[in-house]
Here is the input.
Amino acid sequence: MSIFFDHNSTTPMHQEVLKVMSEIYPQPLNSSAIHKLGRQAQNIVEHAKNVIKKSLNADNYEIIFTSGATESCNQVIFASQQSQLFYSTIEHACIDSCKPNNKAINYFPCDNDGIISLEKLDKILEQNITKNPTNNKDFIAFAMLANNETGAIQPAQKIAQIIHQKSGLFFCDIVQAVGKIKVDLEEINADFACLSAHKINAVQGIGALLVRKNIELNPLIFGGKQQQSKRAGTLNIAGIAGFAKAMEIATNNLEQYSKIAELRDYMENQIKKIAQDHVKIFCENQPRLANTSLIALANCDSQTQIINFDLSEIYLSAGSTCSSGTMSQSRILQAMNCPEQFVNSAIRVSLGLTTTKTDIEKFISVWNNFYQQKFFKK
Amino acid sequence: MTLKLPIYLDYQSTTPVDPRVVEAITKSLSEDFGNPHSRTHSFGWKAEESIEIARGQIASLINADPKEIFFTSGATESNNIAIKGVANFYKNSGKNHVITLATEHKCVINSVRDLEQEGFKTTFLPVQKNGIIDLNQLESAINDQTALVSVMAVNNEIGVIQPLKQIGEICRKKGVFFHSDCAQAFGKIPLDVNDLNLDLMSISGHKIYAPKGIGAIFIRRKPRVRIKALFSGGGQERQIRSGTVPTALAVGLGLASKIAQEEMNKDYQHVKKLSDKFYNEITKLTHIYLNGDAIQRYPGNLNLSFAGIEGESMIMAIKDLAVSSGSACTSASLEPSYVLHSLGVDDELAHTSIRFGFGRFTTDEEIDYAINLIKQKVNRLREMSPLWEMMQDGIDLKSINWKSH
Here is the structure.
């Protein structure tokens, strides 16, 4: 039996989500149509919006359905009115790699523990903001709620406070956090947030952008007048219905999800017992997602480790999937000033609700064999 | 057998997913759920393999190389990528002019309008009365600064087919890139990117019995067309389109393309038979006008104007038929269609225009039902209509000076 330990990359479909989608696919539903089927499609979309708003305490937000989180981030970066952007150094590639020619970008770092530094954020905003007389909000700052590689949960609420004090807008990437921890957008006080369906057991190709009401945003994709002219293109009705179902299931199951931490902690403890100083677990003592563990084995190339696991049918990745295959060093670990011997030797283990103790035991055993071979056999 | 109402005659707006495609998607969703960009494990490889098969199936339908096909979220996004992507990439080499048709889909028009805002020069070519481009006008509109010509294959509102081959020849001769929005044509009529000299083509999934949320763009490699990407991010799809490729949706589009290729003739004959029957029967009522060229058209799209009737009352009267008046994208607003306006159709006739769309799953019984319903309702509405009475009396409605109350 193969073991999938790469749930931060994508997740298997939930059977109930699949059922919802399969029922919709045979129907020609276009929410722009004026006939009965068009209204039926509109009802599905409205229902989905209500479910999502309820799940995230987001009544004061407008929901724009997109093709996924990448598009959601791109829209805010490229189509917002603000010309000053601030990115944390641990953001996902879909934010980090966006560099519009006509906007100024500055970065704010995390500390060595993988948590965004509030002090430095404050200082960097102070030093770099140029007041813009035409906008009452001068800039947008981007900070994720939970990091995709380390799982470290960021002090989003405090980050929001600092950003708002300086009269900016706060974009919070909640992709990895949703379904894993409680996410309350009012409490976080984000102005924008992005979502991805395939990280919560729904289909790839659908996501959303949440925008606090009354914040102006232009479209990135032009065309018909769908979604109040904020995002052209026929709405993906089946995908949206499945997405809402997945949100409902995921956000009602957080207690169960938090129990994954028991398996994760057991795994980490066993590994530390085996390898002691040769192993480093990132953000171990920080608030973390229950399912995520970023484990480095000194001076052992990540790819070699991954291939070894693959041979035993355990599937995981070196960090963010988007960059996998490109072999570039982890930006996140660099941002954390990771010690030299660990920087290229991390693997990301991301567990799921279906992970069992047996899976964990198998993982530990394969890890142990690899470790013994690397460190003690000639 | 009782018919299921409303009868769906809106295949240009969207199509039901073909049961074979639903099966393939469901299978893919349950089996290869991996992230296709996970290079490090076989879940990812399997997903990637499925995507590559789909890419090949799409390429095969238009005689392209699989490496020239990139997945997007749909034709709207593909059109945005093609138009803004080419214009923005080549603007540094002194090209700052884009040409398109006044009757293009809104997403082409608005992409070009957005370029206008950014300082590009644009030309919206008018069409002839039959909805077809005037090739001489196109040729004289192209100048040294022209980067791109974008002309759709089949019009979404009126179904006319533009002469892509001749347009392709002109563009190649003049050395400008040629893009075509083929959302309504792909899988329905033969399209060969080499024969047509196409440099870019936009493709939609949900118009050919695949799901919504997936589309593709063809971008020629030889001679190479370069674009500035619309999204930044993980650099998937060879930097053309960042974002996780949705495996199951891509599989669905691939299979739908394969079916469309294998069954194109059958589908076409089926649609043509139904469309001819419908048209011949409906035009037995007088004063019914077909919008757009009668010959150069895709038969699955009949846009008819009913003189002597109000548009809204007609829609209400035939609410057992799921149809559109004007393009579905703009139909939520009841403004008269800009496409019909470009053809020079009178406002009154534009207001009573209805698009009837036929497809793979339309049956003979449905067409018979639709014909009877329309005949009955049109006669009744005309009996009640003072406009119709005046027309019967030979009064030219345009000569009347309508006073507002």
Q: What stands out?
A: Chain B has two domains: 7-15+263-396, 19-262.
